[in-house]
Design goal:
This protein has about 375 residues and is mainly α. It has 17 helices and four strands. A hairpin with a 2-residue loop joins strand 2 and strand 3. Helix 2 packs parallel to helix 3 and helix 12 packs across helix 14. The longest helix is centred in the C-terminal third of the chain and has 38 residues.
Length: about 375
Amino acid sequence: MSEVPAPTATPERAAQLPAQSPPVDPAETAAASDKAAASTGRLSWWRGDGGEGAKRNLGLIGVLAALIVVGAITKPDLYGDPSWVWNNILAILQLASVVGVVTVGMTFVIIGGGIDLSVGAIVALAGVWCTTVATQSYGAGGMIFAAIVVGICVGLVNGVLISYGRLVPFIATLAMLVAARGLAASISNKQTQVSSSTFINDIAARKVLGIPVLVYILGAVVLAGWILLNRTTFGRRTIAVGGNPEAARLAGINVRRHTMLLYGLSGLCCGVAAIMLTSQATSAQAAMANLYELDAIAAAIIGGTLLSGGRGTVVGSLLGVIIFATITNLFAINGLSIEAQNMVKGGIIVAAVLVQQLQFKSFTRLLARNRLTTTT
């Protein structure tokens, strides 16, 4: 058998072969990649998904600044006093503290693709339960423990009904709203239950370094919520479940269990809020925390949380709560009616939802344009 001669590099074949690239210096390659990554990072921070949240929060801060300007124009004598301005800021933060804690839990639920209409009723039930004579006999620790456990248990019941009972979140939490209010009224016999715990009652009155303790509690809950959402696997799973539950399930996430835990987290926040509200009123009743669910949902929407799920920030929700508290304070110092205040709040909510819809439509158009460019 004759051997096949090896191919020779003829001038014609050599002309067809691609030219060899010169050797690349690894140091230059690393420097170029670092420079590109840095420029891409800066671009994505401001123009990408991360920058969108930053822009929205800056816009909310601008709204707060505009409200302060309105207050300074309408009440220049008050805003001209620095001590009054500082005390008014503390009053606004204290006013926002209870609803702010509830809003943190609501933000997680909405990001996860759900809704919770029972948060106000859970706060009332936890407050009434922790102020019964039997519970108060265990002292402040027993009251705090009871409020938190009741909040978590009721929240988990919501989660089980929605995740494993396959009930629509709107229906399940609406039924819990009615049931929890009814149970609170039955336990309290439709009476106001006075808190006899000095420690609990002093939480709202106590200050540390001139700042109310309620503000510190709000800050601690917001910080914990921010870390949980942005720095843990739980937060990433929450965004994934809210964005696309089926894709999250295929990725190995137990969607049912995670949804149940989200409602349990909301109940935990309601239990903390019940202690705070009981401290402010030094009592609890079945009608307390009325319409807190609407305030929490509105604040989350104003803060940029998408109603369809998959997107939201704890900081934005906090700014939404502070904006509503500032509006309430502004109407109070100008002697305006609560009815006018509610109309303004309703208009803000409608405007925020319309902005979300416009942003979502523009985003879908961008995706469609990118698909068309890719296929062609």
